[in-house]
UniProtKB/TrEMBL annotation:
The keyword Signal applies. Transmembrane segments: none annotated. This is Sortilin N-terminal domain-containing protein. The keyword Transcription does not apply. Keywords: Signal. Gene3D superfamilies: YVTN repeat-like/Quinoprotein amine dehydrogenase. Residues 1-22 form the signal peptide. It comes from Halobacillus litoralis.
Length: 314
């Protein structure tokens, strides 16, 4: 595989009761909060989707299902059905799922009044807006990692902005303040980042030369994989999952703190490899460099294709 493969209403309801001419007109207002809760409970912020995802820039599990950050917005694979988030049709990059929603960078749709590029934004698929955290109108972070249950965010800044030069940076307060990190030991072109869900000092980086792990906040990294194009970074509390391609595609589970590894069963990927990976309980989902996606309901023993060459599979 060549380097070319590396590649987010309130409603007011009034009921009017008309009686005889001598009777008063009464109005009964419904609390807009109730309407919002109904919208969320019924998932009215999602609609059916079939078609081409375009480029995918991130993958994670949210309450609604497995979320793909695609070129035309957030697409969700939910219990065998494809949905899309009505209010989130932006081109999200650096997409990272958190316990309270997601973080993303990228570009807004042309009809939006958001600044382009997005910088670092926080959102939730069930809510309409985005919260700008940093560098909106300045930066598009293609390579970004964020903790699921901590406030650490790591970025590789490709172009200088008003505060950051080119290079590796870390925030421990969701983008309010930033510090440069040395990232000693990294080799190759930086492709992907992931942060441990609870320990913000533990971060992994995938490059075209392999997988590198830091447990000191990104100051230094150690190689933990063989040489090859890496991707599919995903942390659990005890493990780091990663994909590698060095002639054939593999998936590995690395036991943090003990350096032990075990193979993870994946589909037969001919001239293809794992680009993104996520899991929930015994379910696993992968997205590949060539634009296919697969789901396993049994920890990787069996896989079903749900996207083929960018197109959703019913």
């Amino acid at each position: 595989m060549g380097n070319g493969k590396k590649a987010a209403l309130s409603l007011l309801l009034a009921s009017t009761f008309l009686g005889a001419c001598s009777q008063e007109v009464e109005e009964e207002a419904v609390d807009p909060k109730d309407s919002k809760e109904d919208k969320v409970e019924n998932q009215e912020y999602l609609q059916s989707f079939q078609g081409n995802l375009g480029h995918v820039h991130g993958l994670g599990y949210i309450e609604e299902g497995f979320a793909f950050a695609a070129h035309t917005g957030i697409k969700i694979y939910q219990e065998g059905q494809w949905k899309e988030a009505i209010d989130h049709s932006h081109d999200y990059m650096g997409f990272q799922v958190r316990e309270d929603g997601f973080l993303a960078s990228g570009h807004p749709i042309p009809s939006s009044d958001l600044q382009n590029p997005l910088g670092l934004q926080k959102g939730k698929v069930s809510e309409e807006g985005l919260e700008a955290l940093a560098f909106d109108g300045e930066s598009d972070f293609h390579v970004m990692g964020a903790g699921f249950a901590n406030e650490s965010v790591y970025v590789f800044n490709e172009q200088p902005n008003s505060q950051l030069d080119q290079g590796f940076y870390k925030s421990t307060d969701l983008g309010s303040t930033w510090d440069s990190i040395n990232a000693e030991g990294i080799e190759g072109g930086v492709f992907q980042m992931a942060v441990h869900p609870t320990n913000g000092e533990t971060v992994a980086i995938a490059t075209d030369s392999g997988v590198f792990l830091s447990e000191n906040g990104g100051q230094s990294f150690d190689r933990i994989s063989e040489s090859g194009q890496a991707g599919g970074l995903y942390f659990t509390e005890d493990e780091l999952f990663y994909g590698l391609y060095n002639g054939e595609a593999t998936m590995t589970s690395y036991l943090i703190g003990e350096s032990g590894t075990s193979d993870v069963s994946i589909p037969d990927l001919t001239e293809d490899a794992v680009m993104y990976f996520t899991a929930k309980d015994n379910r696993m989902v992968i997205y590949t460099f060539n634009g296919s996606a697969y789901i396993s309901e049994d920890g990787g023993e069996n896989w079903e294709k749900i996207v083929e060459k960018g197109e959703t599979v019913s």
